[in-house]
Design a protein that fits this description.
about 300 residues; alpha/beta; D-Maltodextrin-Binding Protein, domain 2; 2 domains; 11-stranded mixed sheet; 11 strands; about 45% helix; disordered N terminus
């Protein structure tokens, strides 16, 4: 008599497992069924904010739910990255990610998050670096800026975003053979640009898309990389300067792979919208389309380059 009872339990167990499996599949199929929070770890007006704002309508259309943008600023992005790290890994909280910022912000510090353990949904755009001066500056060219810096070591001031900006400008300063005073700005480019435009610093350094956006109020002296930036005609390039900023979207560690895949699919649709492509091109950005695996590998390469 015991054998049928055992068999009965096995059947019931299998039946219950099937119900749970169907229920789980149904829950995944219904994702998302409530608003998604999109964390921007930098101040309004910067590259992360711009990315979130241009993608928001397309993401909402593709996912069928509201995407709510919230700002969690400070620590060169670390405050926002930590907010995501602590969020429930259910796909309902996502964040901007900026490379290499997410790596450099965690370098040698106990910041609470580990860049290699987030779930990366995809990178969307990248931009080379640029050194800018305010309109009307007495430094009308790179050669004039370099000559002044060499004549007055440490006197000229250059603003940038946190420790990431410091590392990227240090590379250019070494190439040019100059010594300046670096001014770190917490909160992102949205706070740095007014300092530059108001002539509170001699120069500012950030991604070239900001130089394009604000070309009515700033002049660009040089851009990073082996070639000129089409959106900044006539601005010389510095091939040895490797500064590149990349923007993307990530989710908390442990977010289910199928939800990450669904968010990636929505991101593909949002980035392909003609109005988004038009904005990206107008700012001189290079669009990127990645799978989650490609995005994770991209960040992995940045960790190798910047973590030490």
């Amino acid at each position: 008599m015991k054998k049928p009872i055992v068999m009965g339990r096995m059947v019931l167990g299998a039946f219950a497992g099937a119900i749970l499996s169907v229920a789980a599949s149904s829950a995944m199929a219904d994702f998302p069924d409530k608003p998604i929070t999109f964390i921007v770890p930098y101040s309004p007006g910067g590259g992360s904010d711009q990315q979130a704002r241009r993608l928001q309508p397309g993401l909402e259309e593709a996912l069928g739910v509201e995407v709510r943008i919230v700002y969690k600023t400070g620590g060169g992005g670390a405050v926002g990255f930590n907010e995501l790290w602590r969020s429930k890994p259910d796909g309902y909280t996502i964040s901007n990610v900026v490379v290499p910022n997410v790596v450099i912000a965690a370098k040698g510090k106990d910041v609470g998050f580990k860049p290699g353990e987030f779930e990366y949904i995809g990178m969307t755009v990248r931009s080379v670096g640029a050194l800018m001066v305010p309109k009307g500056s007495k430094y009308g060219s790179l050669s004039e800026f370099v000559a002044a810096a060499k004549a007055n070591p440490g006197k000229l001031t250059v603003a940038g975003v946190g420790s990431t900006g410091e590392r990227n400008f240090a590379e250019l300063a070494k190439i040019l053979g100059i010594e300046t005073t670096y001014v770190p700005v917490s909160g992102g480019v949205g706070k740095m640009m007014p300092m530059l435009q108001g002539k509170h610093v001699d120069a500012g350094m950030t991604a070239s898309n900001h130089a394009v956006k604000h070309k009515a109020t700033v002049d660009t002296l040089v851009v990073a990389g082996p070639k000129e930036t089409a959106a900044l005609p006539g601005v010389p390039s510095e091939p040895q300067w490797t500064y590149t900023t990349t923007w993307g979207i990530m989710a908390p560690p442990g977010t289910p792979a199928d939800r990450v895949a669904k968010l990636n699919e929505a991101l593909y649709k949002a980035t392909a919208k003609p109005e988004v492509v038009k904005i990206v091109n107008s700012l001189g950005l290079t669009q990127m389309r990645q799978t989650p695996a490609e995005a994770a590998a991209y960040v992995g390469e940045a960790i190798k380059k910047f973590a030490n």
